[in-house]
Amino acid sequence: MKKIAFVTIILLLVFLSGCRDKPTPEDRLAEYISHWNKGDFAAMYDGYLTGKTKNAFPEEEFVARQEKLVEDLGISNLEVSYGKPGKDAEWDKKQPAEFDIRVKMETLAGPVEFDKPIRLRHEEQEKEKTWFVEWDPSYIFPDLEKGDDVDLSRTAAKRGEIVDRAGIPIAKNGTGYQVGIVPEKLDEARKADIAELLGTTAEAIDKSLNAAWVKPDLFVPIGKTAKNDTARLEQLLKIPGVAAQETAMREYPYGEALAHLTGYIGAISAEQLEKLKDKGYSENDQIGRRGLESLLEDRLRGRDGMKITLKKAQEGKEPVTVAERAPEDGETIKLTIDAELQKVAYDAMKGEPGTAASVAPETGEVLTLVSSPAYDPNEFITGMGGDRYRELEEDEKTPLFNRFAQSYAPGSTLKPVTAAIGMKAGTLDPAKGLTITGKTWQKDASWGAYRVSRLHPEAPNPIDLNRAMVYSDNIYFAQQALAMGKDTFTEGLEQFGFGGPIPLEAMELKASQISNEGTIGSEGQLADTSFGQGQMLTNILHLASMYEPFLTGGTMYKPTLLFDEKDGQVWKEGLLDPAQAETIRSTLRSVVSDGFAQSANIGDVPIAGKTGTAELKGSGEERGKENGYFVSYHAENPSFILAMMVENVEDNGGSDYVAAMSAKVHRYASER
Q: Into which CATH architecture does domain 339-378+407-671 fall?
């Protein structure tokens, strides 16, 4: 009986095993499509294709080709689905099971979507009987057949240009020259001269000349030169065998004057290409490398046209277009910048290390942003050699350093702001004179060795606000800061924008600070800060903006650089009342007419402003160096406020040296 029971159990298990559900065609298709949506082509090939399919299409053709197409065509968001059969569907293993599928994807050339039937057959592979998929290349694209090539072609979009407020191009799609050699005419002895003129090497020239396609009478490109670099081009063309062909090229008509603002474009790096590959960049693309060319890359770049085409293997068959996207040119971006005013300001600085900015006081529009000295961005477009780049890097005046993006101690140019805070707080009476004697002063012995110094101890007493501004009296402003207290003074500086970001769209500027910690820790620091020393640092654009309330009656506007951005947006308001603003304006005119900014006292152009000299607190070579400032405007027609700073003015007459440079800008503006 036990033996009969055991046999019965075994037979029952075999019966139940035979009744267990086998995978249906739908089960197998669902698994296959799951791998497809993940791009797991190896799994699709190994476990789901019919034997006939595998014989017709080796694994390399199925797996590697599809992986390459995904990468080359930028295929993303792949979504494959199928139409579900009815609930009572029955499957005959001797007949194919057919379903309808829908394939959707995004490509560099746009979306692709198609419907197609798919079949599964029941067969045995490696001792496993189940359902397998019939496949051919039409499941990649409907018209793709064995032997066809898939081609991706590109139609370049034009890069957007950057223009100034008058529509004058400052970064444009222009032309330059492709310099080349006709080998049979080359004077071999002059190869080194050619290399030096083009910033390359004789070895690089030889590499170009030894390319497989080169023939003695063909033009072989070896370098580029900017359109305005006529002297270099003339030298090159005098050498036997050298020729030039005009070619499309990015141009920067204002060269160094606007270099740190515009920046330049250059070949995309491998690192950038890897990061931006999903945006359709290719290894041959140019990309913004510095300045607005980089910061506005997404708007300037445009969108290349793309076309996916099937090139048919069968002779006589026309190519089939799978997807196509027309090119979209980049935006032309208009700035608030006045390019001619910027050039005058840059030239006025005579290549001295420094920076300048100007704003329209009634709107906040940025009219100039200067960093001096600078580089010529056209050199980067034509391909700068290593020696030339090292020359720029090692230049003691650091032309590659963008100074208008930095912050510096503002020196005495802060004094009008200190006065405004004191008047607003009610602690400074501009008509009340103080009696100040001697060259130095300290509140009491608790200050130890620290004393406030002034440059003009000959200033006659009593010293009121006007006289304090004319003689730029540090002691007067230190005493006024002490009278208002550090909390009131700190709060006033914050109301003028210290300690917060400069709200300028498109540019990255370092914020102005009261101190490293944002607070004032001692009476000595309070005194120093009152005349723009201590740990105070100010950005040059912010400094120009801080003088707006003196012309607007108390309002400071957000600086704007993009012309289509709304101007006249209030940044800070109620900084002083109109009467107090008039008092400040009066003193700033006196600084020029009666004070020590005589280089700006040019008579026919009435200039008002404040000089400033900031002593560098560093050690070594920096110790004893001074940065000179002048913040100024036309006293009767203040169409702009100009803030200018020049480094190391201690041997050039101090801040009056900067006042003379600024006067040239005001004279130009009044005459045009």
A: 3-Layer(aba) Sandwich (3.40)
